[in-house]
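Q: Got a minute? One more chain.
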Amino acid sequence: MRKLIRRPSPGAIIATVALFFALGGSAYGLVITGHSIKNGSLTGGDIKNGSLASRDVKRASLGGRAIKESSLGEVPASTTAGGVFRQAVVLGTGALVRGRGTSSAARLAEGRYQVIFYRDVRGCAYMASIGDAGTAAPAAGLVETSSLNSNIAGVSLRTQNSAGNPADRPFHLIVSC
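A: Always. Here it is, folded:
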């Protein structure tokens, strides 16, 4: 027996192609807007690097974890941001004439003073010298510094005359952290 293979007619070919397109659909252009995106569906991988500007992000909408610290560069220590040096110029009466980062100064007894700063100064270096608050030359004397036991933000000072006896003397104090 001979097998008969029939060629499909041109009408059958056109009908098959039409059926293929009808079932498969056709491509069409799609415009994506903000309204067509479901909230919370985009991730960082969906956004091209460098495509967002600061005007595209709502103010204060990125939390601290959203920004890598490595991209910020070196962050200064809090002592640098607040100033490395704290200082005080104090009269022999214990009155604070001027200062930086200084909360208060007081005379406790003859030749005994305390200066309180706004921050912890326990790990800092204290440098003091007998010095007038104005332009006059101060009386001769000595000054000694130490941490204030009763307050982590305080420095204790003792002033003496040139003979080594307690005496009220004006001084300049610098605290370097």
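A: The mean pLDDT is 80.
Q: Perfect, thanks.
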